[in-house]
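Homework help thread (please don't just give me the answer)

Our assignment gives two proteins as sequence + structure token strings and asks us to describe the second one. The first is just a warm-up. Here they are:
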Amino acid sequence: MTNTPTPHIGAQLGEIAKTVLMPGDPLRAKFIAENFLEDVVQFNTIRNMFGYTGNYKGKRVSVMGGGMGMPSIGIYSYELFNFYGVDNIIRIGTAGSLSEKLNLRDVVIGLGASTNSNYASQYNLPGTFAPIASFDLVSNAVEAAKENNINVVVGNILSSDTFYCADKTATDKWRSMGILAVEMEAAALYMNAAEAGKNALCLLTISDSVLTGESLSAEDRQLSFTEMMKIALEIAK
């Protein structure tokens, strides 16, 4: 852990907590820091990917944007795990529902992250790797949701490399395998955590439905998804 600051994170060692909450949108990181944390110090502004460290109920917690897509969160989570000594990264993002069980604003816990990405090819494994969340973080998130009367759905999600997919049959194929929702980052985060021997979890709020065409505004996605933020903050350690 001598490669700090990194090309993408301007923090010095010790400025980032052991647990980092990671929304995709850096403005959501700013919102969390300003509304949930005390004694906040900003540790990153490089590329406007804001990062902050503060206190939540006496616990030291960091929050930082991770960007869009697996290459972006792959860079940031790798550097946090391997150069800054971070033990836990909790992604708090948005997703499109693929299931009739889910409505707008529902919270999903990504137990596993199926993917159409080639991210795992770098490991030269003799088979197919299954990216999964840390069991402790999953179980703690379920318990925190119960304690705060927040309904969550736990299951398999899809981390997709494509937002606009040319294969118009892909959604139905993933749905047939029980995929709950689609997002673009969790699989890379889970793989980086596995390789580093660290912990990762993805919490998602449904911002739109692939089935019905319903969607929420960009402002809603940035400012109003407080239930998953609260779960993530409660389980930070």
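The one we have to describe:
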Amino acid sequence: MKDLFGKAILDYQTGNAPENLITETSISEEDEMDVAYLFRDYKHMPYIEQKALKLTKGKVLDVGCGAGSHSLYLQNVRELDVTAIDISANAIEACKLRGIKKAYVQDVMLLEGEKFDSILLMMNGAGMCGKLNKIEGFLTKIKSLLNEGGQVLLDSSDIIYMFDEDDDGGKWIPSDIDYYGEVIFNVSYKNESEEPFNWMYIDYNTLQNAAHATGFTCELVQEGEHYDYLAKLSV
């Protein structure tokens, strides 16, 4: 991986002529993303994210923290003990420059020896497992990192709306897709292109089934304005 997402984040943080990220998926057209959005403060976050940050408690793990905006709020405003992790070395460097005290380059699937009261999987964070057939293994790992009475807060979207309707009013899903929420992501930045990677948007019912299969209870906390939602998993 060229870590272009992280490069854009670090360029923005250091004032190194940041440009918009170009994203495209297997089911959507090319789109430009202003990197500044990843640096939003609490009042500019979607309500679902604000709600998640209000519910966060105790010792916190922010998985796939990106530019660290959620961690920064929890550390500085809520005064919680927050650990921010991401596989992007550039993003973690930006997090450290922003003042996050515990920011580490770390794959959550390889994390050992620590437990947390709240684990955040924000901005479709559960999708980092890439494929639906990996979600149960992913959630099992996440569960192993929770203290007794701990919680997982995650947001995602049901992207069924992006598919065309057939003559019967159902949705037309291509036959070569195992699950309609699975997409292939392409990211470009400053005329460089990242290797395509798998990502997943998981609808609530599918998440609920996977959660129950891995010993979680699953609660729908909040529905957003555009097919998105906030869920809480607890043991």
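TA reply:
I won't write it for you, but here's a hint about the kind of observation we're looking for: Residues 4-14 form the longest helix (11 residues).
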